[in-house]
């Protein structure tokens, strides 16, 4: 079956979803789940994106099965690298997503990140991602490459391959060389333009030799689990890319 490899329940500061509601939503769609609660040390603002891994496993281990696994989403920052790595090693996580949520210490959600022109900001974003994923080599998955496009205030928000081709090639080659899988995040599959732009990005990944991609909804509510998975699977199938998930940090093939 297909697995939704990116979602958040009550152990994440920005979600109140119960594991029971997540399981019910997944069963209704006949998909599996890998929970990926937020770990973002030293995150600016009032929310604390941290959780107790022992409590997490104590409370959720009884739900683990061949259709539900326990993972974590690590927010990448250079000065929290060692702390994050120790956290990942402190519990038997099935899967580790590493994501970029901050740029120069600022939350990408806020306009304070976007005081310069789009090309300058996006180039900084992509180069920062390259630098940090090289350091966070314990990652199984590189989360939502297009995360910045959700919040950037520019008229054209997309990361277009034509504009950033050299840097995108470096990013893809970096994760291919390290055996890290990119995520195809369906959060922005709400219009055909976004999908066509992402198709070009992942087409280049495939051309460079990439073979595997995880599919994640980034759901924080039960109704968003599995969002646009048919469209995501169709995109990967068109490019001959294999959807995957991880169990005991080992890659597993995911199919309809």
TrEMBL record:
Q: Which Enzyme Commission number(s) are listed?
A: 3.1.3.15
Which InterPro entries would you find in this protein's record? Histidinol_P_phosphatase_HisJ, PHP_dom, Pol/histidinol_Pase-like
Q: Where is the PHP domain?
A: 4-186
Under which main EC class is this enzyme filed? hydrolase
GO biological process annotations for this chain's record? L-histidine biosynthetic process
Q: Which domain of life is it from?
A: Bacteria
Catalysed reaction equations from the record: L-histidinol phosphate + H2O = L-histidinol + phosphate
Naming one, the record's GO cellular component terms include: cytoplasm
Q: In which pathway does it act?
A: Amino-acid biosynthesis; L-histidine biosynthesis; L-histidine from 5-phospho-alpha-D-ribose 1-diphosphate: step 8/9
List UniProt keywords, sorted A-Z: Amino-acid biosynthesis, Histidine biosynthesis, Hydrolase
In Gene Ontology terms, what is one molecular function of this protein? Answer: histidinol-phosphatase activity
Assigned protein family: Belongs to the PHP hydrolase family. HisK subfamily.
Matches recorded under NCBIfam families: hisJ_fam (TIGR01856)
* Name listed for the protein in its UniProt record: Histidinol-phosphatase
Record the organism: Megamonas funiformis
